[in-house]
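Tutorial handout. Part one gives the primary structure; part two gives the three-dimensional structure as tokens.
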Amino acid sequence: MKRCISMVSIAVGLSWMAVPALAAEVGAAMPPVAERAQLPAWPEPAAVLHVAPDGSDEAAGTADAPFATLERARDALRALKKEGRLTQGGATVLIHGGRYRIHQTFALTAEDSGEASAPIRYEAAAGETPVFSGGIRIEGFEPVTDEAVLTRLPEEARGKVVQADLARYGIGELKPLRLGGFNSGLGFTTHPVMELFFNGEPMTLARWPNEGFVQVVDVPVKDGHTIHGMEGSKTGRLIYEGERPARWKGEPAVLLYGYWFFGWADSYERVASIDTEKREFGLEEPYAGYGYRAGAPYYALNLLSEIDMPGEWYLDRAAGVLYFYPPADLSGAAVELSVIDFPFVQADNVSHTAFRGLAWELGGANGVEIRGGNQCLIAGCTVRRCGGDGIVVAGGNSHTLLGCDVYSMGRGGVLVSGGDRKTLTPGNHLVENCEIYELSRIDHTYTPAVLLTGVGNRVARNCLHDIASSALRVGGNDHVIELNEIHDVVRESDDQGGADMWGNATFRGNVYRYNYWHHIGNQTNPTEAPDCGQAGIRLDDAISGTRIHGNVFHRAAAGKLGFGGVQIHGGKDNLVDNNVFVECMAAISFSAWGDGRWREFVAQAMESPEIEPELYLNRYPELERLAEDHDVNTLARNLVLNCGEFIRRDSQRGILLDNIITTTDAALTRDGRLELQALAPFLSEHGLAPIPFGEIGLYASATRPQTP
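Part two.
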């Protein structure tokens, strides 16, 4: 294969083999980006109802006599529909500003749907911000005086930890603390949890060590368990180092959080016993899915005896007493505990219904769930400070999330699934102009800002940032991810990307274009940690037929083994073209599979019951040669500026066309941030297609929420 690469000019390379079908797209103009989404031109409503915090469900629902709850407004709309009074224009429920304490899920079903000409709208009154809260404000903290408790507290914290009796708040019996994680035997799902917040900031469930991890010394049960040649144990017994766990013997519900076998598979394990002579933890079943191995990083939490730092807290569930080491003066501070263990909103098979300008906060579970239905809209809304996922869209068609904020979540931001993979029918869901950030507080891995599955959905013009793991997790076909800014993600997880795809060679037709990926992974010392790697976009385990066009990658590669801004693990037919890589450890990295492993992996791919083979061959002609040309991907007309390497782990199987690898002394950054417009002259000089820098990321809009 002829592969000519120049460090200062255009590199021209042509393969001796037949160019895959996807490579034929090189140089083809991309379709223009869509116009910014607009709110629907809603008709004048046939009915307007009012809800206010000081209202009454015995009232008439008028501006002067508002209802108190959404449930009462919903029931009034049901009655109006039965009377035939909403056939033209639909209805609006105007929700006035203030705080609404939530005691049950606001449930909607198909009977609560609107129609295209008669939509149902739940929206904030003009200039007002309704906040639906699943939490309580804790007041009246008192000094700890119980000698038994003081004895358990670290000496340095005595006199600084305060307590509050939760019985006065009518919470009732407190459920045991159960947490999961990707590797958990309890299942990778939302496990409702109570959390404490101080002036809106999440506090730390008392832990040891206060920062970072310690390591498992050994696994005493040698049961022959190995994965990828690494030895471990399927039995939950762990040898620890030091004397610290001796302090925990009286603790009723010690949890260990760790990456027990792989740096991308986390879970919480409940301690059943502590043998201080053997220095051994015995864990409760079910055990972590991949088992345990020596050297695994972990920390302990949910420990009254470890409240030794400002911001730490502990809940004695049997006594109903909250213990807290406040980070600042309590006078005038808002100390809040999330309480509810159910979603705020659940809409099942609901259509033509909108939520606008509302805020939901302090829930222990997911925020809003939309399942089935079509053409629902969530615009200018906020979901924050919850223990689960922010907004779940499961199935249905043409739902839109527009101008929303989702942040401070225990798990992920937005989960979107729509479309039919078997028939390649698109879901047409849209996530646009949303800021989604500060996620993965509880479950650290595979809880991204956007989890996207199905067929034919779009994620555009969002800002996704500050996440322990990926910003996007994508599966399925024909999705478009464009014009997003993604930064400060993959901050803890190993073997991940800012966008991550995995495991199916028939996931095809996905496009990443005009996104700005920066400060991905460990940028403090990118060549030293983590052990494997972190990338901007990672196509893992046979992901193929993906186009990555017109993206900017700035400081988007890290790891000892090392990933590039784009990392391809075993896939083929991927086209990486017209991108800009700046100050990356490597622009592109590969983990080649070879012919044997590839053929074995894809041998049954076209026989999967999830797809219709004839339809797929018609849509993606390159599938005719799926088993052939392993590890052949096309890198074309990319600009590589001031990067350590162009290609890491080059398999010599790729097709290289007109890539520019160069250096420059030009000032491209300000305060560590890339000046995108400064790249335009480089694109023009080297004949690359322009990138719409001004369209990337959030934009001013009437739907952007105003945070109270």
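Part three, for discussion. The chain is about 5% helix and 35% strand. Helices lie at 70-82, 147-152, 595-602, 613-619, 680-685.
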